[in-house]
Amino acid sequence: MTRALTSHEFDAVPEVTRLATGERGGLPGVQSEADAPPSPDELRDDQVDGPELSARLAKTWGTEKGLIGALSTVDHKIIGRRYIITAIIFLFLGGLSAVAMRLQLAQPESKLISPDLYNQLFTMHGTTMMFLFGVPIGEAFAVYLVPLMVGARNIAFPRLNAFSYYVYLFGGIMIWVAFMLNIGPDTGWFSYVPLAGPEFSPGKRVDFWAQMITFTEVAGIAVAISVIVTVFKMRAPGMTLDRIPLFVWAELVNSFVIVFALPAVVTASAMLILDRLVGTHFFNPAEGGDALLYQHLFWFFGHPEVYIIFLPATGWVSAIVVTFARRQAFGYIALVLSLIATGFLSFGLWVHHMFTTGLPQLGASFFTASSMLIAIPNGIQIFCWIATLWDGRPVFRTPLLFVIGFFFIFVAGGLSGIMLASVPLDTQVHDTFFVVAHFHYVLIGGNVFPLLGAIYYWFPKFTGRMMSERLGKWHFWLAFIGFNVTFFPMHITGLMGMPRRVYTYLPEMGWGNLNLISTIGAVLFFASFVLFLYNIISSARRGPVAEPNPWNAGTLEWAAASPPLPQNFDRVPVVTNREPLWANRDSLPVVAGLSVENREQIVSTITHGRADLRESSPEPSIWPFLTAVATTITFVGSIFTPWAVVWGSIPLALALMGWFWPKTSTEDER
Amino acid sequence: MAAWLTRGVPSAGIYAGPVAWLIDTQFNYAAVPWVCAHQVPLVPIFALIMAALSLFGGFLSWRGYATAPLTPPPDSTGAGRPHRFMALIGIAIAALFTIIILLHGMAGLVFHGCER
Predict the structure, then answer these.
(1) What is the rounded distance in angstroms from the CA atom of residue B116 to the CA atom of residue B20?
(2) Which of A151, A487, A519, B4 is the most exposed place for a label (fewest CB within 10 A)?
């Protein structure tokens, strides 16, 4: 499957020469230790081959057995798999809370759920779906797939990546335990002040919400930084900017949006918790604060959040469409342009969530304009995908079915979004079920359907087994019908005036039949997820064994074994095409000369993807886990006393000292 | 500077367009009370300046496109011209954001700034 470049080919890929010969490179006058010639004592991958090379590299890059080994791992695939599974568990928990709410709303004046529990349920549903599922699932796929797709052996900053997972996990567990103890947040997923302030929400419920934000945002930013550096600096030689897979572009833009958007909500939640616990008055107008400032800060994050959820899905869709259309993406440049434009534009729409707060119409009109024009890049993407399918030879397997479902649902959600960008219409339907229908069409259509397709698509890579096609098709139709039966009637209930976040309604309102239909749809949608879960478990145990490239796809992750070995690739590939496996069907050119005994990676240049340096990748360490534990103690403790920040900083400092203590291991000696 | 204008900067449009739009959004949003009080058409004037900044970024990208090598490296079987790629994206993004900035400016022609 692979072949090393011969000497005459070195001229064509000059950077490879340095790796094989140890010739010094880099910018003139800027030489580093990483440019030093390889040690003659060190075994390199051009000196061994075949199974021996695989076994030695697997030992070098592998994870120790046992609990300590599991908690110390820095393998992006293990962390990525944990991230994906955890995010999907939160998807199920969020879904169950939605089913409970739908059962309550199935008929007027239902007594199934108390108003207090209902408030907690819709808050937990929104919070879980947005912070514990929506943001992490895109990053989770990036953690697993981006290093494989760019031909790297691990993600950049792998210990930071491990730390982020534990922080995310502990934050999610904290808020769900709080909910189980009847101290779950109850002020909505955005916790507006003054409702969420100390005067109207005494107790600890909102504090748990605010601190959960801190957990998930720390985790989200950490992963985003790892992904950005991986994409910019760790691409395989030859992977120029215009050969980066569309999935990787989507994750790169998504990571930038995360880095710039998430600090706003961390600021908002930190100021909220200070108002509640320390007695500051950031959001208290009576003392010179500003309640609307909270909304600005929240939505400066909150609208990009929609695209943080959507952008990774565009990557999944691009990967699936290209593979099953059997041709390269139509309009690669237009697709990348759309991703970048969407990423920027997402930061200029936030005020459309605040059209009913009494802003001047001129001010609101700027955001109407931007909100309407973001339809242009998103429309371009849809047309490019359709053109790819139109001009290809599409094979309608389960992943592609979910993508087709995405087209219908997301476009419908986008159209109602254009309607809501208009101030007069938004004012009429604000806080009604019309808005609920709109954003579920956008978010479930724009994220969950592509996600389900992505799971069917990459399941063979994750597990080494294929999922059942027959169950997959049943799953798709049940989900597609169930979703539309649930959410389409909500447009009408909203236009009839039914507000969001009410635990019940009177029979005279005339909303009963439509609500009953929505609940029947929700049960169907729920059943589709039960079928999905069964398919996952049964396929993981008894599914047909998958080849490395069962879909005959073109990107690099399919060159690795299914599931991939710890080192991902025995030799780092050289990329000469956007779909390297289609361009080199018989043998993939590779780089030779990297260490076998040491975790050595190639660091490449940003624009041309030229191999620039050899760099060690960090070895497993327990310190990121211990740092996450110390962080959790500090964050949770600070809900109860501000002194927890002082005392908690001691174990946190100790853990960080352990993490960054100079190493005696081979990684630094070499 | 002259060399800059001649050779261009392939990625300039990617930065100039969105930055001009962000400044335009922030400035105009903050200027609404002043526009209402003084009835000066500041919004369209500022939008024109920012549109010019965005277009200048697009111009630099276009120069970068025109001067980038035509052929990919000899080892390539597809793509491999990242400077032309970035330049094309720069031109398109500058054009898109120029349209959005001009649309902001048009709002200043429709509203006086005092409407609630």
Answers:
(1) 27
(2) B4
